[in-house]
Amino acid sequence: MNKGRWLALPALGWLTAFFLIPLFFVVAISFCQRGTYGEVLYQFTLENYRRFFEPLYLNILSDTVQMSVVTTILTFLLGYPLAYRIVRMNRSWQNVWLLMVMVPFWINFLIRSYAWVVILRSQGLLNTFLIASGLIDQPLNLLYNPAAVQLGMIYTHLPFMVLPVYVSLEQLDRRLLEAAYDLGGTPWQSFRQVTLPLTLPGIAAGSILVFVSSLGMFVVPDIMGGAKSALIGNLIQNQFLSARDWPFGSALSILLTVFSLVLIYLYYRVLESQKGKGGRH
């Protein structure tokens, strides 16, 4: 065996031990039955997969996809201009802004989520400020609703969009933009026909990171949505921790994984077709 290949063995062993083998058990349990007291009965059944197509669970999946799509779009609309602005700064300011983007990663996720509870609750910082400034008389209902969950998910996933887009913009050949200007292109035309198509790989990477992470998110809906917001991640969590229905929870996990892979494949196909059209122009 080539010496270089040995270097990959630790990583392959790690993935096999902590990803492939657990995944195999999840797949196997998804075809089992739940016992009376929550134990797993190793008897083959497709009932867990059939149960997923009941209206209740399809509605939860629909809400999850809708929430994830909106999160992806809004993080793109917020993250792309921010990454574009950072790239145009001098190197020292770029480092400062990139540090600010990455600082949330250094703080525990639960602490960041509960910080939003402190800000948005009825007696929180925002309501207190609005009442003290005379803008409102009664506290606004800013927490435990879908809007609060959406806010938390955008805040959580924004760095996942900014960083890949920043890398694409940083690697962009500036001579192409100069050529576009020399040919009479306006700044908007240069952006639309040069910058945007050439940064599609960064946009795709960021979108996939945000979308897939949003699909499985359960902490933010739990903390900021309360009992009024149930996404597919919360449903899976409840099956394992509360309902003690591991077979159904495993089936949901497998279906969510397959659903994510199909969407990612379709997304790449659309991007490839768009790049093909851009190349013909």
TrEMBL record:
PROSITE patterns: ABC_TM1 (PS50928). One of its GO terms (biological process) is transmembrane transport. It is a multi-pass membrane protein. It is found in: Cell membrane. Keywords: Cell membrane, Membrane, Transmembrane, Transmembrane helix, Transport. One of its GO terms (cellular component) is plasma membrane. InterPro entries: MetI-like, MetI-like_sf. Its main location: membrane. Belongs to the binding-protein-dependent transport system permease family. CysTW subfamily. This is ABC transporter permease subunit. It comes from Heliomicrobium gestii (Heliobacterium gestii).
